[in-house]
Amino acid sequence: MMDVVIGLEVHVQLKTKSKIFCSCPADYTKDIPPNTHICEVCTGQPGSLPVFNKKVLEYGVLLSLATESRISKLIRFERKNYFYPDLPKSYQISQYRAPLSYGGFIELKSGKRIRLQRIHMEEDAGKLVHVAGETFIDFNRAGVPLLEIVTEPDISSPDEAVEFLTLLRETVRYLGISDGDMEEGSLRCDANISLKPEGEDRLGTKVEIKNINSFKFVKRALEFEIKRQTEVLKSGGRVIQETRLFNEAKGTTESMRTKEEAHDYRYFPDPDLVPIEISQELIDRVSEDLVELPLQKYWRFRKEYGLNDERASILKSDYYMAEFFERTVKFVGNPEKVANWMTVEITGILRNVGKELKETPLTPENFSSLLKLLFEGKISRPAAKSVLKRALEIGEDPIQLIENEGLLQSRGDLSPLIEEILRSHADQVKDYCNGRKKIISFFIGQAMKITRGKADPVELKKIFEEKLKDACKGLD
Ligand SMILES: [Zn+2]
Q1: What secondary structure does DSSP assign to 157-183, as a single string?
Q2: What's the gap in Å between 134 CA and the centre of ligand 1?
Q3: Which of 9, 12, 398, 445 has the fewest CB atoms found within 10 Å of its own CB?
Q4: Last residue of a domain, one of 287, 311, 342
């Protein structure tokens, strides 16, 4: 058996308003026409000078605190030199010898800690756009702020890698510093992987996999690479240190180039940017923005509400959803039932329509009202489901829907109860038929008592009158 050793390098794009070294908007999405959010700084014009965006530092400090990283007292930016068409200056402003923070960790559900070697700030490059055999360049993304998170090689399986990335993504979303969307490129991941004989201390030769842009592909790329390297080693060969690209279509990795060493980049301090001292005051101020983190929430939900692993995992995956759950439970209790409705029904419908919960008119208040009606038997389960579906799909208030469509259970469902009341009070029925019409309020009182005041008395009166009419006919 071989031990698998994986380390990750993750780039998280920060959602600041402006870029890291200029005041251009950091928004570069598809709707923004190419090369409109650019200036002389982010396109690397001679003589232009970078000005550091302090918000980037605050976001970086926040993630450092959330991962219990040690924050450097003095940091500086360095130039990472390499040539590529999407990099207008021919160097990227990054951090090397004095990173923002180091020595943190992210804990997995198993209790295992994946140590973070470092977190540093840097700028993103532009984007090459290939259209019909031609290549264009869009610099809107150049200078968008990134945090690079480098782990120690502590990850020992593709599943652990996915769990780590999931927790990291949830964390940056909880903190509100990034969308963490892998498909959109706001979270990018390179993986280093090597194999070594079980129990051996010395690490094997590592291979870096680039170009992995979904959680599913991280798993597949790593699984493929474990298989490939196992076969190489089994047949007596040796693994070459290189960079490989993940081919999504084939599910394989392909050799791209032999790996650069750090010295190939000729790092040196950027003379245009002064070193930055990080004050305790700044750290204290930023720490006020810390929130309960995903895994803490997960364990609390399990303990406090008795939720199982699956439900607690789904709820903690989204901050809004977790808050929504807790507020709903405050209104209606029944944490397990609420969790079930949220993680099965709501999540299922949202997945189908491609929406997020916060984009719908559903609120903890109206969702609670809906559940209350259901728990009290005032609407049926299918009715509740269909209302929920329409509320989430077409965006209507669920309680309004119930009212508009008259979905509150009435006649049909109250009939058995009313018949039962009449059967067990034969004397009063006789009195009624003999002209004591007022006794109807006695029957309504019985029904109200049994339904604990939840039936509509006007509706009850109507049904009792009908049923009694029939009953009196039978007595004639
Ligand atoms: Zn700019």
Answers
A1: SHHHHHHHHHHHHHHHHHTTS----TT
A2: 25
A3: 445
A4: 287
- Please, what is the Cα angle at 342 between 339 and 348, to 5 degrees? 135
CA distance 144 to 188: 14
Gap from CA of 148 to ligand 1 centroid (Å)? 21
pLDDT in tens, the chain (476 residues): 789 999 999 999 999 999 999 999 999 988 899 999 999 999 999 999 999 999 999 999 999 999 999 999 999 999 999 999 999 999 999 999 999 999 999 999 999 999 999 999 999 999 999 999 999 999 999 999 999 999 999 999 999 999 999 999 999 999 999 999 988 889 999 999 999 988 888 888 999 998 788 999 999 999 999 999 999 998 988 998 999 999 988 989 998 876 566 678 999 999 999 999 999 999 999 999 999 999 999 999 999 999 999 999 999 999 999 999 999 999 999 999 999 999 999 999 999 988 889 988 899 998 998 898 888 877 878 788 888 888 888 878 888 777 777 666 655 567 777 888 888 888 999 999 988 888 998 998 888 777 766 677 777 888 888 889 888 887 76
Give the distance (Å) from ligand 1 centre to CA of residue 23: 6
CA 126 / ligand 1 centre spacing (Å): 11
Q: How far is the CA of 35 from the centre of ligand 1 (A)?
A: 10
| Count of domains for the chain | 3
Count of CB atoms within 10 A of residue 258's CB? 10
Distance 48 CA to ligand 1 centre (A): 10
CATH number of the domain encompassing residue 449 = 1.10.10.410
Q: Are 243 and 301 in a shared domain?
A: no
Distance 44 CA to ligand 1 centre (A): 9
Question: What's the 178 CA to ligand 1 centre distance in angstroms?
Answer: 20
Ligand 1 centre distance from Cα of residue 186 (Å): 19
Indicate the Cα dihedral angle 148, 108, 330, 306, nearest 10°.
170
Please check whether residue 146 is in contact with residue 122, taking contact to mean a CB–CB distance below 8 angstroms.
Answer: yes
| pTM score, whole prediction | 0.83
Domain of residue 111: give its range. 2-287
Task: Give Cβ neighbours of residue 284 (< 8 Å, ≥ 6 apart).
Answer: none
| Under 8 Å between Cβ of 116 and 105 | yes
Let me know whether 134 and 36 are in one domain. yes
Distance 63 CA to ligand 1 centre (A): 25
- Both 130 and 28 in a single domain? yes
